[in-house]
Amino acid sequence: MESKENIKLELLKKYEIKDMKDWKGVNADLIITDPPFGIEFSGKNGNYHRNSDNVVSGYVEWKVSEYSERIKQLLKTIKDNLKQSGQALIFSGWNNSNLIHNEIMKFEGLTLRGKMYWTYNFAPACKLRPAHNVYEIFWITKDGGWHYNNRCSTHHCTEGEPNLTTLKFIRDYKMNMPKYPTRLPFKLLKCLLEHFSDKEDLIFDPLSGSGMVGVVASMLDRDFLIGDLNENGKIVFEHLIEYYFNKNGLMQDKKITDFWKKKNGY
Ligand SMILES: C[S@@+](CC[C@H](N)C(=O)[O-])C[C@H]1O[C@@H](n2cnc3c(N)ncnc32)[C@H](O)[C@@H]1O
């Protein structure tokens, strides 16, 4: 049996410090990616209304003036690295979602199939104005051979009627480890991966930050390739591997999840 250390080394090799434009021919079954917001976001300032200790630096933000060009480049990266039958999910905050929508519609070779909404627990901290605690997720395909599974194993499908338009998942904050701004929660990714991919599929994220897409893909028996320009993303990824492959970590996770559930009335 492979040692824990070897498994970790194998997983670390799948995270490359690389510009999104430099990927070629990945041939992914599913791309899940979350571009920078284009709102001068660093994750280390007051955006979160919470203690920013432990938040790593180096997050590469996109300027508003260059946002369209960057999205065009991201769409090219998706097209060049997706199987003919593949699918892509692109996250967006509300600020630039109209721009992303328009760029996808203009882009040749990718088809917008629909949009989903992820609602999360940010609202309690936003006292000064209505909180935008919703992300939009653009669902894109390349050709006609795509498929999705209409059931996942999270509360999204096990409780109540499955609804692929609205996904309600809390953010799973972690204590005592480096934090990556905007890290996506485990269960949200689990839900999306189970709906849009199968075991042994290749999952790709060229803007991977903490590498959470890779962590969840691996735990669900999918293969993955991920990358980011920020070297600190890979450091957080290493901590997350330790955390999720460690039973005590999962117990700590449950404690935090329970805390948030209680606080936010989920
Ligand atoms: C919103 S974050 C992704 C967070 C990630 N989904 C997670 O769960 O941790 C966007 C990421 O894109 C990275 N980035 C920006 N421009 C890039 C580029 N040209 N190539 C690769 N990564 C880039 C940023 O450093 C940042 O980590």
Averaged pLDDT: 87
β content, as a range? 15-25%
Unreliable stretches:
46-50
The CATH C-level name is: Alpha Beta
Helix fraction?
A: 25-40%
What structural class do the secondary elements suggest? alpha/beta
Please give the largest β-sheet: 8 strands, mixed
What secondary-structure arrangement, pairings included, does this model have?
Layout: H1 4-13, E1 15-17, E2 28-33, H2 67-81, E3 82-92, H3 97-106, E4 111-119, E5 134-141, H4 155-158, E6 166-168, H5 186-196, E7 202-205, H6 212-219, E8 223-228, H7 231-244, H8 247-264
The protein binds S-adenosylmethionine.
S-adenosylmethionine binds at residues 19-20, 34-36, 59-60, 180, 182-184, 206-210, 212, 228-230, 233.
Describe the structure.
There is one protein chain. The protein has 266 residues and is α/β, with parallel strands linked by helices. The chain has one domain (4-15, 27-264): Rossmann fold (3-Layer(aba) Sandwich). 34% of the residues lie in helices and 19% in strands. The chain contains eight helices and eight strands, in the order αββαβαββαβαβαβαα. An eight-stranded mixed β-sheet has the order 1-8-7-2-3-5-4-6, sandwiched between helices. Strand 2, helix 2 and strand 3 form a beta-alpha-beta unit. Helix 2 (67-81) crosses helix 3 (97-106). The model is unreliable at 46-50 (pLDDT under 50). S-adenosylmethionine binds next to loops.
